[in-house]
Structure formats: structure tokens, C-alpha cells
Design brief:
Keywords: Membrane, Transmembrane, Transmembrane helix
Radius of gyration: 19 Å
Number of helices: 3
Number of strands: 0
Structural class: mainly alpha
Shape: elongated
Helix content: 55-70%
Oligomer: single chain
Length: 105
């Protein structure tokens, strides 16, 4: 008698679908990064002057977040999952951005 469950094991992580994963990180991750920058900029009351501390913070935040997304994109099981997760994150972040911008204005 076999007492093991007949569940299939999840597919191991691999880099075989590297192009869809990287393209999701570059395109959707870039949009997500700019959305995060917009939300943080609104919360910090940043202006358009590049010499202020808040503008410099946002400048370096973009590079940090985008590098993290490019690194983490290989943890998705497939390119389709990477696109789906980043698309949902984009909708949430940009919705938050427009909601905050509507309240601030």
C-alpha cells in the first residue's frame, strides 16, 4: 500500500525561460519602479529640483528597486507568472499613486 500522496512535485526553479522573465523585469518592473518612485515622491512632497535631498533619494531608489527586480525575476516559475505578478503589482502601485495624487491635489 502506498501511503504517499499522489500530488505532483512543483517544478524546480530554472533559468530555461530567461527571456520572458527578464523582459517582464525590464518592462513591467520598470513601470513598477517608476510607480513606486511616484508614490514615494508624493509622500515625501518632492519637487522637481534635482538638488534637493528628496529628489536624490528618489533617483537612487529607482536604481535600487530596479536592480532588485532584475535579480528576483528568476525566482518566478515561468515568464507568464513573472508577467502576471508584476502586472498586478503595477495596477496596485499606480492605483495607489493616482489615489494619493487625487488626495494631495
Amino acid at each position: 500500500m502506498n501511503t504517499q500522496a499522489s500530488f505532483s512535485k512543483p517544478e524546480p526553479l530554472s533559468s530555461r525561460n530567461w527571456f520572458p522573465k527578464v523582459s517582464a523585469a525590464v518592462v513591467a518592473g520598470g513601470l513598477l519602479t517608476f510607480g513606486i518612485m511616484g508614490v514615494v515622491g508624493l509622500l515625501c512632497h518632492s519637487d522637481a529640483s534635482p538638488r534637493t535631498l528628496s529628489a536624490q533619494f528618489l533617483l537612487w531608489l529607482v536604481a535600487l528597486v530596479w536592480c532588485v527586480l532584475l535579480s528576483v525575476c528568476f525566482l518566478f516559475r515561468s515568464g507568464r507568472q513573472a508577467w502576471a505578478v508584476l502586472a498586478v503589482a503595477n495596477v496596485l502601485v499606480w492605483g495607489l499613486f493616482f489615489a494619493i495624487r487625487g488626495l494631495v491635489s
